[in-house]
Amino acid sequence: MATPLNPNPHIIGFDEFVDLLHVEEIDTDLYRARNPPAGRRRVLYGGQVLAQALKAAAATVDPGRVPHSLHGYFLRPGQVERTTILKVNRDRDGRSFSARHVVAVQDAQVILSMSVSFHVEEPGLELQIVPSPETMSPVDSWAANPDGALGEFVDIFEFRVSVVEGPAGGGFWTAPRQIWMRARGSVGTDPVMHACVQTFASDISTGFGEAQLPIMPPGGGPTLDHSMWFHRRLDVEQWFLLDQEPLITSGGRGLYQGALYDRDHRRCTSLAQEILTRPS
């Protein structure tokens, strides 16, 4: 019998991961989200809640409208053993844009507030600053440590990681800042599902490492707010790059920005996230 990729009981497999993204409609603009079994993680993974909220919002817009931006505020930690209800408000439907506001609720308390905008795909000027492959750090094969930052996701994504060393004397740049990944199975052809997988993946790491200011836990703390902009379609079943740039830690908060690139190094998605970086 083949050895499973990660036998730890708190790890979810790929099929279960895809199931988590299919929220259940229980009434008009009201959805129920599933949670993975409780294990070592007692608090819900933020990328999961964000992706489920995006899926619920997408269920209320016309076919052909795909997400182009989202902005989420994490207000309370979500509990794995509690049901999450997603309430969608239809803010506006225009000729080419649709705006939605989603709240994720547990026990009558909002754990996530998210705004998301959808756009009818249309032709337009194609212009971007393309990162040069020569300036990118090497991408080496990497065996994920089950107890490390990426360990609980190795059954969902294949990873190739490079670690960028920073300025002399330490700093933020000791964590993986560039992570190549791809889904281990098929998520179908629905562009919303591919956007949901990107949303899930965007919260896997922040690029922050063990800085001179002790960060608890290593790699960054809970998410405060998270924003994404979807520029081009990105096939998550093919290799894509999560490129992150930590910017600052101050006042107990850290900010980083990043992007998702496809195999041809086209920037497909931009993101920014603020996290807690309270000293231990």
Describe the structure in brief.
The protein is mostly beta strands. It has three helices and 13 strands, in the order H-E-E-H-E-E-E-E-E-E-E-H-E-E-E-E.
Layout of helices and strands:
Blueprint (H helix, E strand, L loop, with lengths): L13 H7 L3 E4 L2 E4 L12 H13 L6 E10 L9 E10 L3 E10 L2 E12 L19 E2 L15 E7 L12 E8 L7 H11 L21 E8 L9 E11 L2 E9 L5 E10 L4
Helix pairs in contact: 2-3
> What is the CATH class designation?
Mainly Beta
Structural class: mainly beta
Compressed to H and E, one letter per element, the order equals HEEHEEEEEEEHEEEE
What share of the residues does DSSP label as strand, in percent? 35-45%
Q: Would you give an account of this structure?
A:
By secondary structure, this protein is mainly β. It has a single domain (14-120, 137-276), classed as Porin (Beta Barrel). It has helices at residues 14-20, 46-58, 191-201, and strands spanning 24-27, 30-33, 65-74, 84-93, 97-106, 109-120, 140-141, 157-163, 176-183, 223-230, 240-250, 253-261, 267-276. It has a 13-stranded antiparallel sheet, with helices on one face. Helix 2 runs antiparallel to helix 3 (191-201). It starts with 13 loop residues before the first helix and ends with a strand. The relative contact order is 0.15.
